[in-house]
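Example 3.2
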Amino acid sequence: MENGAPVYADTTVPAEQPPGKGPRCTGCTADNLGARRLALKASQLALSFLAFLCEEIVQHCSSCGGLYFFEFVSCSAFLLNIPILVTYCTSLYERTGKEKVATVVFGFLATITFCVDAVLMYLKRRKAEEERKTENPANTLNPTENQPLNN
């Protein structure tokens, strides 16, 4: 204290980050893939989406089997690339490990399909209830049902 030293000295030292790993305020990083593979995955995502859109533009075809297969492949590539990129570019990759990435991706897709199925079932039930209400809202009888049987 006499020589100008502070009363309380720092008790912790900031942790050093490994080289190449910058601060992740957004949770996204390219460290797991590297810049080249990240660019390749992003271009795969963009091109598969573009291929799917181009296929939807086609209105007439003479042999549609190949076109439907192309649609399936391009749409599948697009939908599989999204969770793969999310897994590799977030901290989820460090938590799950390299060998479990495919499991995480298919878990995402299964969860999404179950949610879509639940929403579709809810909408179908709601539509059926609305149709039942509009069929006979006041339970009024038809004019022929109000007539006596023997006329």
